[in-house]
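Backbone-to-sequence.
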């Protein structure tokens, strides 16, 4: 990709097509979702839980995020839906590019799967949430697969999909160098944290909380959690 904002169709087709091919070949396991690093899943989920609990309505105080409906974006085999979202929210919807991951999720999630209302097979670049619907829209290790223009447009659509006091969280790897890099292996962008902030500003959203994953392996990319509304 010569230009992250290039809307040229052939270039976008290759960008999204290469990512689709990469994920089509990946097994529907937690290890597959995490690129061979299954053992980091509990550490990832624990810090996500702490981050999220600080944002959602635990008591009855007004003005905090509700706990009725969450959307898991780029949900994969349901790792996050099962261990992070279903324990905190009454209902969860999943949106995911690969149908085979959604099919696995139906068994992987287990006893609580009945509280997953929708299994939506779609790329986020083509997806619009229902208006005023979600208390939380969680996007992890997936918006790296959208071009800047598509991510800005997606964030705007997500904003209209939020219930009152709803929030969107992006949890993504970030580059420690001062520039965004393109990874041709899985056709994704390793953006800098500043680049994400710039995208959020361009989408007209406000940052509610921004925090790096603290406990994390030194040989893995740094990760940031950014909550916006
Ligand atoms: C690294 S895995 C992360 C899965 C899950 N978020 C997790 O943390 O366990 C990336 C997921 O994003 C999905 N994906 C890739 N490109 C996508 C797109 N454009 N729209 C929606 N999902 C996409 C892949 O199929 C894969 O399931």
């Amino acid at each position: 990709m010569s230009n992250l904002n290039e809307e040229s169709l052939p270039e976008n087709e290759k960008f999204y097509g290469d990512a689709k091919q990469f994920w089509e070949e990946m097994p529907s396991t937690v290890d597959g979702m995490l690129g061979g690093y299954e053992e980091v899943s509990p550490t990832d989920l624990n810090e996500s839980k702490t981050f999220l609990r600080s944002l959602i309505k635990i008591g009855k105080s007004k003005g905090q995020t509700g706990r009725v409906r969450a959307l898991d974006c780029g949900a994969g085999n349901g790792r996050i839906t099962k261990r992070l979202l279903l324990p905190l929210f009454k209902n969860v919807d999943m949106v995911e590019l690969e149908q085979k991951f959604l099919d696995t999720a139906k068994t992987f999630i287990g006893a609580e799967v009945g509280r997953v209302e929708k299994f939506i097979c779609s790329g986020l670049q083509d997806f619009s949430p229902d208006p005023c619907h979600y208390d939380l829209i969680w996007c992890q290790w997936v918006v790296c697969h959208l071009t800047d223009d598509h991510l800005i447009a997606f964030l705007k659509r997500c904003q209209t999909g939020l219930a009152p006091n709803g929030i969107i969280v992006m949890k993504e790897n970030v580059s420690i160098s001062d520039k965004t890099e393109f990874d041709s292996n899985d056709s994704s962008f390793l953006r800098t944290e500043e680049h994400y902030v710039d995208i959020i500003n361009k989408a007209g959203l406000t940052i509610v909380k921004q925090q790096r994953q603290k406990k994390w392996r030194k040989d893995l990319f740094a990760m940031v959690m950014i909550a916006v509304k």
